[in-house]
Design a protein that fits this description.
934 residues, alpha+beta, seven-stranded mixed sheet, 26 helices
């Protein structure tokens, strides 16, 4: 089968893509992720780059236009520059940048770009970026929460693009003067009617959130309560005590310097109370721990000091005997946020009862992802205080009232009054009212993530932190009850205003559709189609189990608008492709078989409809724990059940894997994180394998691997792949060899499993890096082996002498070369901080690759940075490139040995190499000019 190679199958500017993907995590205002939470959402920059490079031809596919390697490299660099601009957040709506990208896509697709499908659309990143690139975008998911999020991103906005808002304020103020582009009008209506809902809710229940009278020392007057702080309580297990003791995990309220605030517990007449101080309680040594004395559920009684057991607290919770106690309040004053004792604003006693029908469905008994069930919080209704339930049910009820207002206002503007609803592809007044209501319903669901007793209080930021700070329904012991009318986190007006910024930035153009659909079922989309998807990762995240938290609120507010999608009481779980043992009576093997069989079916469906002209791309979330250490002489092998299942499923479905691209989307801050955080995801690039593909033997596979693999690895290094990413990236060309065959047979005739192939690929990579040592000078070869054994620690002189002879050098020569120090029968490699400060490569009469590498790293880390390293590189000649190769080998050693800081040093040199090379070239160009001026 012949096809034109796409850019993604040859090379990508990974460092630029990864940097922008990591940076994107810190962007909130206007980012589509702020529309509604979804777990493990793919970064938009990554999706945009992968889609673009999957459609655009690599220059090597056009030898008529680019006949030489130099011409191809030049053209590839031009395409890289387009990608480097395309992935920047600032350019998501830059029409010049997007236009350049679209032009390249049209050029490579004969002006007929293919449609794109993500059959596991989740948070909608992939179809959204397909739409941004001017492509027909389709998505599907079995999870109704995912379907609604993706509809809100790609399906609804194009229906009402370039339309002005219908709310009376906007039409009165700007109808005759302002043009509305894309989804701006829709966004403005979401903001307006969201604020109306907030104001209407305040009329109904604002009295439940009273202001407080401030003490004179704080300026006096009225102040708005930002949050009421609570702690759960349990009856002390000591029979002679029996007091309901607070389960406080910390006494610290606020930790900002100069504004510290602490809870001071006190017991009087068998009752516990709290005061607030700027100094911690003297009787407790560690305020950070509060009354916590071990794992979750182990606390000390504030009165008698008896320590509970986890089982005791768990049983009390399951029998509904846990209580709550108010500990303090947080108010907004002219001096900033203040912490006051709880009695300044006790919880109102006249609390109405909320209608919780629909909220009493039980969460799944998922022991890993639904922790709160261990302590009796079994249903969504259990996760909210009475006042939180009143707030959320009031807002949920107001969604339908807001929809009625939108409908009436839309009719008044003269939009045709048609009866076809949004769920039946309507585009007129009724559909528009449904559309605005959809976003408002998502806003209520999003608010539940803040207005909940599983949220926590951030002591360093003086604000509430959402329930899903990670991918679990946690158990929290002390929590904030935020004020939904305080103009801060949890205020519904603030929520919908934030959402409106996201909506306004959406592409809002092009054909699109989103269906609730099982990925294993027959395809109902256009055929053929380009597939790019982010499937479930074995048992990493229980999406359906977690989604019930949001689903009950979406069903309450939007059930009539989406009667089919929201027809069930809970999210569908039986068909979800997750290897969750609890669904199979705790049987891990059955769970694994279910996942593997289902994923195989999904890949088989993709194989049927995958466009033969373009690669299929699949993301796999990779975790550090998924590496298996092989023998000491071999590189760590990338192997895990989820990883193998993904690869095996693709190969069995008839795909050959042509590339594995490490996509690092995290921003590690610690040194350890920098080296140990492997690619947070890998993009697998696949092509359909010909049905006539032959089989081969293990010996033939190994021989071909040794013959073809080194060239692919050299190309990766030439493309400046980071050492930390080399192991993952090398899987691509290795698996391309393995998966080009229908099967690889072992000597006994059994098919070689993926795990064995991965081990052989990693062994070959290790051999390749070891063979590069032969190109180094004798002193560097000595230093490499000595470093692996001792790093910069001392070793015996005799051992060094023996090794130096084997490498055709001598200890005295190594000392003269500035590599080694030798004293009193001991030798040691010189540390970088011991190297000569005024070292000049051009006057060094025994120049070594080792010395050059260490000096460049010292300049990079502790000297003049990139410019200092570039000054050295400009004087090193051919040794400079060898220094980069040595950095790969040294990183390999550090990775295997677990030498964190050292590994970071060598990884940093390679990552910085393009900039160092550029600066070095400028230095070399300026040198003759300076001489001429002199």
């Amino acid at each position: 089968m012949t096809y034109r190679k796409k850019l993604i199958e040859v090379a990508l500017p990974l460092e630029a893509i990864n940097n922008e993907s990591a940076r994107e995590k810190s962007i909130r205002h206007g980012h589509p992720s702020t529309l509604h939470l979804w777990w493990a959402r793919r970064p938009l920059a990554t999706c945009r780059a992968v889609l673009f490079s999957s459609l655009v031809d690599d220059p090597s596919s056009h030898p008529d236009k680019f006949p030489t390697k130099e011409a191809q490299d030049t053209e590839r660099k031009r395409l890289f520059e387009i990608i480097e601009e395309l992935v920047k957040w600032e350019n998501i709506n830059n029409q010049e940048v997007l236009g350049a990208a679209k032009a390249e896509i049209l050029k490579s697709t004969n002006n007929n770009p293919p449609p794109v499908l993500d059959p596991f659309c989740g948070g909608g990143s992939i179809p959204l970026e397909a739409q941004r690139l001017g492509l027909e975008a389709h998505g599907s998911d079995i999870n109704p929460v995912a379907v609604l999020i993706t509809k809100a991103l790609i399906e609804i906005p194009p229906k009402f693009a370039n339309q002005p808002p219908v709310n009376p304020d906007s039409r009165k103020n700007s109808l005759t003067t302002k043009k509305w582009f894309g989804a701006q009008g829709l966004a403005e209506d979401v903001r307006y009617y969201g604020q109306w809902m907030r104001d209407e809710a305040f009329k109904r229940i604002g009295h439940l959130y009273p202001k407080v009278n401030l003490p004179q020392e704080y300026g006096g007057g009225k102040a708005t309560v930002i949050a009421w702080l609570w702690a759960r309580t349990v009856k002390c297990p000591n029979p002679s005590c029996g007091m309901h003791t607070p389960l406080l995990s910390s006494f610290i309220l606020g930790s900002k310097k100069g504004k510290e605030a602490y809870l001071i517990p006190h017991v009087l007449n068998g009752q516990v109370g709290f005061s607030v101080s700027n100094k911690p309680a003297k009787e407790y040594q560690d305020s950070k721990k509060g009354l916590k004395r071990g794992i979750s559920g182990v606390f000390e009684c504030v009165a008698c000091k008896t320590v509970t057991t986890r089982n005791y607290v768990s049983e009390e919770g399951k029998t509904k005997r846990l209580g709550v106690i108010q500990t303090a309040i947080v108010v907004q004053s002219q001096q900033g946020r203040l912490y006051l004792p709880a009695d300044f604003s006790p919880c109102p006693s006249n609390m109405p009862e909320a209608d919780i029908s629909g909220l009493n469905v039980e969460f799944s008994p998922n022991p890993r992802d639904v922790w709160c069930r261990n302590f009796g919080l079994d249903t969504p209704a259990d996760l909210f205080t009475p006042r939180q339930l009143i707030a959320l049910t009031t807002l949920s009820d107001l969604v339908s009232k807001a929809r009625e207002k939108v409908l009436a206002d839309a009719i008044n503007t003269g939009i045709p009054d048609k009866t076809l609803p949004l769920c039946e592809s309507g585009r007129d007044t009724k559909a528009y009212a449904d559309a605005v209501a959809t976003y408002l319903g998502l806003g209520v669901s999003r608010s539940a993530n803040t207005i909940c007793s599983l949220a926590i209080w951030s002591q360093s930021r003086d604000q509430s932190v959402n329930v899903f700070s990670r991918q679990t329904l946690p158990m929290t012991w002390d929590f904030p009850e935020v004020n939904p009318f305080a103009g801060a986190a949890g205020d519904f007006g603030e929520t919908t205003q934030s959402m409106s910024k996201s909506i306004a930035s959406l592409p809002a153009k092009g054909k699109s559709s989103v269906l609730q659909k099982d990925a294993c079922a027959e395809n109902t989309f256009i055929n053929p189609i380009v597939i790019s998807t982010d499937p479930p990762y074995f048992d990493n995240i229980g999406y359906a189990d977690l989604s019930d938290f949001f689903y009950v609120w979406l069903r309450s507010s939007l059930g009539k608008i989406y009667p089919e999608i929201l027809s069930t009481l809970q999210t569908p779980k039986a068909q979800e492709l997750v290897a969750t043992p609890y669904r199979f009576g705790g049987d891990k093997k059955k769970a694994q078989e279910f996942f593997e069989k289902g994923l195989g079916k999904a890949f088989a469906q993709m194989r049927k409809v995958a466009h033969s002209d373009y690669p299929l791309t699949i993301y796999y979330a990779f975790k550090q724990s998924e590496t298996d250490e092989q023998d000491g002489n071999c590189l760590t092998a990338i192997a895990s059940t989820g990883w193998e299942t993904m690869l095996e499923g693709l190969i069995q479905a008839g795909f050959t894997i042509t590339g594995t691209l490490p996509m690092r989307t995290e921003r590690p801050t610690g040194v350890k994180a920098k080296i140990n955080a492997l690619a947070s995801s890998i993009a697998l690039v696949c092509r359909p394998r010909p049905e006539t593909a032959p089989s081969t033997t293990r010996r033939q596979f190994v021989n071909i691997l040794k013959r073809e693999f080194p060239d692919a690895l050299q190309k990766l290094q030439q493309g400046n792949i980071a050492p930390v990413d080399l192991a993952q990236a090398s899987i691509g060309p290795g698996m391309a060899i393995y998966s080009r065959y229908s099967k690889v047979l072992e000597s006994d005739g059994t098919p070689m499993p993926v795990r064995t192939a991965l081990q052989l690929i990693n062994q070959t990579l290790d051999e390749f890096l070891a063979e590069q040592e032969g190109e180094f000078d004798a002193e560097t070869r000595f230093a490499l082996i000595w470093y692996e054994q001792h790093t910069f620690n001392e070793g015996l002189f005799g051992d060094a002498e023996t090794l130096s002879k084997a490498k055709n050098t001598a200890v005295n020569g190594l000392v003269d070369a500035g590599i080694l120090t030798a004293k009193v029968g001991k030798v040691r490699l010189l540390r970088r901080d011991e190297l000569a400060k005024n070292w000049n490569p051009q006057t060094d009469n025994r120049l070594t690759v080792w010395e050059a590498t260490q000096h460049m790293i010292r300049e990079l880390q502790d000297g003049a940075g990139n410019q200092g390293a570039a000054n050295l590189l400009s004087q090193l000649g051919t040794i400079g490139e060898a220094a980069r190769e040595l950095a790969y080998r040294l990183y390999n050693i550090c990775d295997r040995k677990g030498w964190t800081a050292e590994g970071v040093a060598y990884n940093s040199l390679v990552i910085s190499w393009p900039e160092i090379s550029r600066l070095a070239a400028e230095t070399e160009e300026s040198a003759p000019l300076q001489m001429a001026l002199l």
